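Researcher: Go.
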Amino acid sequence: MKQNFAAIILGGTGQVGGAAVTELLEIPECREVVMVTRKPIAARSRVRTVVLDTGASDFAERTAALGREVLSQGPASAVSCVGVGSGSRRWSEEDLKRLELGVMGAFARGCHKAGIGQFCLLSAVGSTASSRFRYVRVMGMKEDSVRNIGFTRLAIFRPGIIVGNAHTPAWAGLFGSLVPGPFGNIDQGILARSIAAEVALHNRDVGEVIRENAAMKKLAAQLSTLN
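Model: Structure:
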């Protein structure tokens, strides 16, 4: 982790994304976090907000231009923390696809076109495009869409029940505490730290890795010993 790096993040204003930004900023080698947003947000040290119309037909091209500019300053990775979480029950499948595949897909394609090699993707436990369950199915489609883009390094994060998240009801966290393994609880801070650790520690790795609860806890702990 001696070489500095930057991270371009979509979904950085959400619960998990915001926590990931905070964790990235805790790493001295992180020279900049570039947040792609739809509207301006409050200024922060080492955070650059770039307002783009995520629904525009040229969103991928604008993302590519931004990615090339960030890469001109040194190594950079891309992170997507886009997601609607518990609110997905109120969304139609087409609306979910418009966000999770359309907006996120355009972001990923733009990052790849810019030459960014590492992509970190927030997904969900059990995701598969063949699932009978709508949300899990769309998450699986999202994973496949990024997989097909061809990043040098693709890290997929599949958390179980995220505790410490404003959108997770108390009963879900209680239930999750009784469920072992990947479907159980993971603290939002640990999830965010594991994403930051992937960016900082594995940006030169090659291939795909899927991280579920246990692997994310290990990775987060690895970063904690270095900070």
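Model: The first strand starts at residue 5 and ends at 10.
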